[in-house]
Amino acid sequence: MQLGMIGLGRMGADMVRRLTKGGQQCIVYDVQPAAVERLEQEGVTGASSLEDLVAQLDKPRAVWLMVPAAVVDGTLEKLVPLLEPGDVVIDGGNSYYHDDIRRGTELAVRKLHYVDVGTSGGVAGRERGYCLMIGGEAEIVKRLEPIFSTLAPGAAAAPATPGRTADKSTAEQGFLHCGPLGAGHFVKMVHNGIEYGLMAAYAEGLNVLRHADAGKHARDADAETSPLRRPEFYQYDLNLADIAEVWRRGSVIGSWLLDLIAGSLVSDADLKNYAGRVSDSGEGRWTVAAAIDEGVPTPVLSAALFERFSSRGEADFANRVMSAMRHDFGGHVEKPAAPSGSQQG
Amino acid sequence: MQLGMIGLGRMGADMVRRLTKGGQQCIVYDVQPAAVERLEQEGVTGASSLEDLVAQLDKPRAVWLMVPAAVVDGTLEKLVPLLEPGDVVIDGGNSYYHDDIRRGTELAVRKLHYVDVGTSGGVAGRERGYCLMIGGEAEIVKRLEPIFSTLAPGAAAAPATPGRTADKSTAEQGFLHCGPLGAGHFVKMVHNGIEYGLMAAYAEGLNVLRHADAGKHARDADAETSPLRRPEFYQYDLNLADIAEVWRRGSVIGSWLLDLIAGSLVSDADLKNYAGRVSDSGEGRWTVAAAIDEGVPTPVLSAALFERFSSRGEADFANRVMSAMRHDFGGHVEKPAAPSGSQQG
Amino acid sequence: MQLGMIGLGRMGADMVRRLTKGGQQCIVYDVQPAAVERLEQEGVTGASSLEDLVAQLDKPRAVWLMVPAAVVDGTLEKLVPLLEPGDVVIDGGNSYYHDDIRRGTELAVRKLHYVDVGTSGGVAGRERGYCLMIGGEAEIVKRLEPIFSTLAPGAAAAPATPGRTADKSTAEQGFLHCGPLGAGHFVKMVHNGIEYGLMAAYAEGLNVLRHADAGKHARDADAETSPLRRPEFYQYDLNLADIAEVWRRGSVIGSWLLDLIAGSLVSDADLKNYAGRVSDSGEGRWTVAAAIDEGVPTPVLSAALFERFSSRGEADFANRVMSAMRHDFGGHVEKPAAPSGSQQG
Amino acid sequence: MQLGMIGLGRMGADMVRRLTKGGQQCIVYDVQPAAVERLEQEGVTGASSLEDLVAQLDKPRAVWLMVPAAVVDGTLEKLVPLLEPGDVVIDGGNSYYHDDIRRGTELAVRKLHYVDVGTSGGVAGRERGYCLMIGGEAEIVKRLEPIFSTLAPGAAAAPATPGRTADKSTAEQGFLHCGPLGAGHFVKMVHNGIEYGLMAAYAEGLNVLRHADAGKHARDADAETSPLRRPEFYQYDLNLADIAEVWRRGSVIGSWLLDLIAGSLVSDADLKNYAGRVSDSGEGRWTVAAAIDEGVPTPVLSAALFERFSSRGEADFANRVMSAMRHDFGGHVEKPAAPSGSQQG
């Protein structure tokens, strides 16, 4: 099947490669001509402009946007006037599902179809395949199945779930029509919310392991410092790389994220390459916001989100408020940070 | 290699089966004669008493306890007098690592060796192998390697971690000597702490998905109820079984726990078989307690732990205190629970 | 000064009484004629309709809405056509500040002024006075000062803050012009978010005190139950009413909320009058949503919010997911709830 | 009544002053002779050694320790041999209640009595009085009542709780016999746990208010940064000092802590005097540990505790783990901190 791809960054280019390798035909465009050229050199058909892209596509056209969420609307503004009734626009990026509903409704007026696809897989997706969560009209999603099934990992990527009837849905192939407009990005949003929670759980646990030697370090014995009552219980020097590795086999907490952690720790046991300022790109926030709208408690997902905010210094003023209170009721004076070098983690 | 196994419950019996199948020789004992008989019918050598078990073992003996944490001390009281210098006791259950340190120190006086083994794998372990986190003296752990390597899943159970040198440790085979006395159960404790966090992350996310139809249900419009401002954004009827299934392939949140969730939802999409009273067996508590001792923040792991307490009604009095305050400052009267049937999740 | 009051519920009627007693003139209206009659019997001037109310007010009019957030827009729809340029509408209820901005902008087109007032004080406000957080145009807020200063508690209600220059703002009198449209309800929103956190802190602490006798109760000793290792440390029968009372004098945690708790516990030490289903009326949700928009971590405020959701059973499905996982990996079967009577709180 | 006071730091010296002013007779000692001299100059009787202190006291003696928790045992080691049956030792510091039980049991062997007193009030206590939470034998506590009632604020310090019978207990005077050995420090421990939660609630809320201008600051529009969707809703420049002040009168969140915040913000609106490294001195940790032992959920109290740990950099390694995962699955590169100056809070 033929597909136009707009946006040839990290994700977009690799998806084109996987589609091409899987026998689909891609016409590709990017605002950066070099990105187009790179794929042309691999035998993919490039387009020099949105007009050129649209002109090269058979009707009804299928155009996949793989651009940053912030530029989707700008791209649509230029693209939509070039399209004709029956054409399909697919947003495969990380759009907020509220935007999908708005955009899909606007496009429907022009008899254009809109499909939102939450795409998970990251840099490994080219080889492993992409997990696709899809929202939109059922018949349009059906029409695009050759694209989805080529991008997806396929059923063989995981053992069958016991009791599951294989032909019930396409979920086992790694792509799923979740519901109407926005449903794909809604499910992807929650997927990422869960991802935040999983990541934080591993990170916190590893931090506890890393400080299992706390009893070896003298702690100040002043009124500002809570003493470690039983230092004899914190005398372990644990090898986190080995521990992450051993958990990869047979344990209840095995996962792809754990595989990645094990890899990171092999090469950089102290993770010195990172400062620990953890970004968030929106989905975690939207997940908690949705939970609040629904009245559903998400203490773990929100704690994970807030840890990221705090890692970037956003709790600073709140912390100063607390220090000010301690000073004012108890005469407590802030302790300076431990001199660098004595800090271990 | 020869091993005495005490405790033939769910875990112990399956471990004996895996050991036997892997060519190790087990002599087995349980306070329930029927449990011993069951394994004898499978060709395993049974013992009629602790004395009988000890008598049948070659010296230096290796005896593995696979009994509830609460009865380890009672079992040791009877077992230890029967042993001789050089013998090894292995505690493979879910003991608190503080107890390992105490017990190991006591046994050392009698020139007995103590090895603590955190064992993960659950009911699937017999086939998949068990992930073993081990604490104790290095030479004793080395001596027991045939047992550990037979119980463990083996290197083939997961793809190699890129950059890792295979012969660096036994971690890749699924068992690891983590450190001195207690280190095995310390690592297993944190493993379970992480497990709580992972489980809660999935559970909360699925709950958000389940309530994605919140806009379809009329909400009361009174001063006690926060209205849903934008019901049009919560109109989705999502198929959680399909969503869990699609996430199993190619997504960032794939894991063994997710595999289990996918299986549960196939047969019982509403999980009606469960009341949602979630037990905890200690390790999650101990992980947070260790984090507090170390001064390490674990907001996600503790939120996950507290959700379990709340699921069992342990927040009730606190909730009543809040309702009482609301009544007293605002005249707010508690709303009764929605009639059963209108409740959806 | 003259004021029209629409909405004579709990709050509105008491505010009219305080205004009248303080020498201001109120014309009052409510959709329930009985509510109007009640105040007329106390000597207040009633109105039989919105038209009547508007007709009785001198120009430029000042009309205060004290109605549920959900009916503000409906009320404005009827009221606004009756007003004339220069008139002021005050929303003193619990509106979302987004709505203030929208409404104020709409009213400005008709040369009407809109003032949003976050009002705290509850049922005690009639005597103690109301804390007023105000948003809108400075000159209009200034014009209404006689109303605000009569409703507010006045400077004498609390000792002067050391170092504060008395004439800097009206804050010391208990009312404050916080900023432009919406600023009043924004500040009130965060006020309530803080309130949730404060309430939860007391409630959780009292719950810990209440269970200080945990060591007296036998706990099951099975694999599903974490044993209490040191029952000797949990042998206290604490009198919560006395403890709340003693904290009211000289302690760091004294507060008006604590005063209320002390009162509740006097008459009903077990708070049997409450089921513990804690409502939330929106501001706590909006506070956390604002924090997420701002990228500011609010782990305490969100934990407090989610406790309320959980108190109403909204975690149920998530809990069932966790029980299902425990069953599937460990063969764990849910324990039934303790028989009623053995439950202590 | 006569009392020996050991430990003349911030708290001890002020308590002596309040006792003396209230007509009680103090004999005082401190390891720093200068501290003794200071009080001698105010007319208090000093002692040059523990022996001297004990010699000057009438039998049965009452000796109050007001020393850091870490040196209580060392002091007792020297003091106890000097005492005689019937004498009473009072620990008024911040001891862990486990230690009270141990110490009281040891002293009982020598027929000495031990009373634990949790003391709240801070630097303001000299004037306001101290809130005293007391554990120990009833008759001994009774014997010390003149001391307690002089230190306590007295009934007039707060309005009577409606419905409360005045003579029911001493709670209304600001001191309370809570229960047997350790009960005083147990209640004080939870008091401080609550204090952490209250402080965090205010601090988080003020942080949300401080960032109410988030819409005025351009945010990066890249894949690492979640955009602020509605900047028009975050255009407020709020005066936190005025807001804290207005909340002091009539609002639901009025408290002594709020009074302190209002004072801090008057003189230093940005709290530039603080770095935001918030210490914790043990009670918050012990409260959460007790909650875990009891199986009582304390998500708010623990979130408040963990914020303090994080404020001191203790989440750093966990944050690096998260950044490493983001890099490995998504190719995400950490964003550097914003240049100083652009940072606002």
From TrEMBL, chains A, B, C, D:
SMART domains: 6PGD. The keyword Oxidoreductase applies. One of its GO terms (biological process) is pentose-phosphate shunt. Belongs to the 6-phosphogluconate dehydrogenase family. It comes from Paraburkholderia rhynchosiae. It comes from the Bacteria. This is 6-phosphogluconate dehydrogenase (Decarboxylating). The keyword ATP-binding does not apply. Keywords: Gluconate utilization, Oxidoreductase. Pathway: Carbohydrate degradation; pentose phosphate pathway. Residues 184-336 form the 6-phosphogluconate dehydrogenase C-terminal domain. Its EC number is 1.1.1.343.
